[in-house]
Amino acid sequence: MTKRKGAKSTKDIPKEILEQLNRGEIETANLVEWLAVDQRMLLENLLIRHGREKYLKPLLEQINRLKKQTVNTVNEAIGTGLLEQVNIHKDSDFLQTVSSHPADLARCWATYTVGKDETLSLEQMFQKIQPFAADSHFGVREIAWMAVRKRIAQNLNESISILARWTADSDENIRRFASEATRPRGVWCEHVEALKQSPEQGLPILEPLKSDKAKYVRDSVGNWLNDAAKTRPDFVKNLCKRWEHESNTPETKYIIKKALRTVEK
């Protein structure tokens, strides 16, 4: 990820930086820049540069049909539209161009070409989304789990079985994805009702991470349990009590404190 700190507000983004972002030449440095990118302009520049101008009109029409246009809904619309266009034109090689593009928002679009591809088996979907889960950019990692969350919720048991294996990965981003993608409530996404009511199903993912060395992972596990505590405080309190006895580490204590923050209010 870029070492630039990025501006603290949209109005403070230098003109030349915003132009580079909209041309897809550099990554966003922070959330302020991420929200400031003109995705239509970025899309047009990307398609023209790679000789896919014919994709632009149908993609813009897809954006314009959105009832509510936010960074995330536009992201999803472009990703969905790109998948449709490459399928129509038998142009799957272009997806690799988008997936490895220097612009982080372009790679965000690519995550939806994975999540929306119904021809992929669940195992194939997870295999294709994993590089995005490990991406160096925060935005791509966040959109990656959003892009596949619906299929995870629809195939919960099998998804948890697959993601449980990810908890042993050496990359903290992969381990964090396993937790974040299955949060009962999550952020900017639909809830997983089955996990709100029966969070026990998530234990194959939570147990291996209860003393993770990475704060990025611990924050996610703590938030997962805090989500669950809003509907199943009994489960969270009992689990934390057990973890206190089984795993007397600073890392586990950190997770427990985060997990119980709503229960103990």
Produce a short descriptive summary:
The protein is mainly alpha-helical and 265 residues long. It contains 16 helices and no strands. Helix 9 (138-154) runs antiparallel to helix 10 and helix 11 runs parallel beside helix 14 (215-229).
**Could you state the order of secondary-structure elements as H and E?**
HHHHHHHHHHHHHHHH
N/C terminus separation: 37 Å
Number of strands: 0
Overall shape: globular
Which regions contain 5 or more consecutive residues with pLDDT less than 50? Answer: none
The overall pLDDT average reads: 96
Number of helices: 16
Computed over alpha carbons, the radius of gyration is 20 Å
Decide which structural class fits the backbone: mainly alpha
> In percent, how much strand structure appears in the residues?
under 5%
Query: Main β-sheet: number of strands, strand sense, barrel status?
Result: none
- Helicity range of the residues? 55-70%
Structure description:
64% of the residues lie in helices and 0% in strands. The chain has 16 helices and no strands. The mean pLDDT is 96.
What are its keywords?
single chain; 265 residues; mainly alpha; 16 helices
